[in-house]
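Cross-check.
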Amino acid sequence: MNKEVKRTKYILLLSTLLIISLYFNIYQFINSQNSEENKNNSSTIILILQAILTIMFSINFFPFFSSKKSNIKYNFKYWNLNSESLKAIKRYVSEVTSKNNPNYIPEEDRIALFDFDGTIYGEKGPLYIEYYMYYDFLKNNPKYLEIEPHKSIYPRLEKSVYAKKLIDFELDYEALVCEAKIYKGYSMEDYKNFVKKFAEKNAKCFKNLKFKDMFYLPMIELVEYLQLNNFIVYVVSATDRFLIREYLKYHFKIPEQNVIATDAELMPKSEEENFNKTGKIDEYLGFNKNDYLIRNGNLIKKNVQLSKVRMIAREIGKKPILSFGNSNSDVPLHNYILTNNKYKAEAYMVVADDIKREYGVDQYDKNGNIDTSNSDKIKKRWQSEEFGYKVISMRDDFKTIYGDNVTLTEYEE
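Predicted model, tokenized:
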């Protein structure tokens, strides 16, 4: 038994004894008011001192019940109550937040990671948000369609938009590189305003849903639940860091510094002319008094797979204990957390197996029934001995995904 638990028990016992003693002394004092022999100053002084001691010990004990309370209860409205994955998460949180549990983890080490696309935010409205934002920009600014590389990338993006998935693997990186060039010269504020304006648009493959609201409601609850239990939450993604920062503000209380994602290169505005001539930033020049940062059109590095591991090692400095993802891109991160961790750690994969409410991995057969073979295979893989991850099923675990009024639609320009 640790010292904190022992101390709490002693305070509880002493407070209880003092309260009982105070009760009887007050009772005797009241009943003896008509008795001259008990009307003396010493009895009154003793009674006052005992009352003060009782209050002091009680104040010392009550914070243990309130601010130190472990495993804060939460009303999950958007999860099915019989969800096995939710039960597993609750058990884990109960263990690591209870000081008398051998798996207890101090608050400063309760670090949880969430991927963005497909884990807390929809992937197919109709594409990863960053790629569709780029496609939409090109469509509405046709002058760029006469300029390479946008001229070549646009038809490939268009095919992917209508297919609701990336058609070729190379596009997954090339689109990011090309998209970064679109925002060349944008200040931090310019880009922020551009993202916010786009977020207000209607998601193309859903009815009654805006891009800013394409977050999975059950996962919003999960993040809030962890934060109430003093977990430090980070979002780790291959999407642009500054885009994610703006989107999270709509539904989460995650600090901007807790976003680890793909980075575009920044430089002072005063360097723009020299950069356009040389293609390089002079790192030895200073930052002018009235300067400001702009995007120079270069992508530093896509934060994907092993890059996620390197980035959290650099930017967090501690090994997290919880990880939530949805794809192969999150495997290195999961394995890093589960390997040689000094604390009990868990990793979860969100599987898009609900094709009635979300664009998932399954499909309808020729008879109109849902063929679950794809999602079954994915779940079996994640839960296998090789990986050892826990699975969150959109179909089985989520009572709703985006809200009951949101329905799927075909893509329309």
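The CA atoms of residues 199 and 211 lie 5 Å apart. The two ends are 64 Å apart (CA to CA). Passed to J.P. for a second look.
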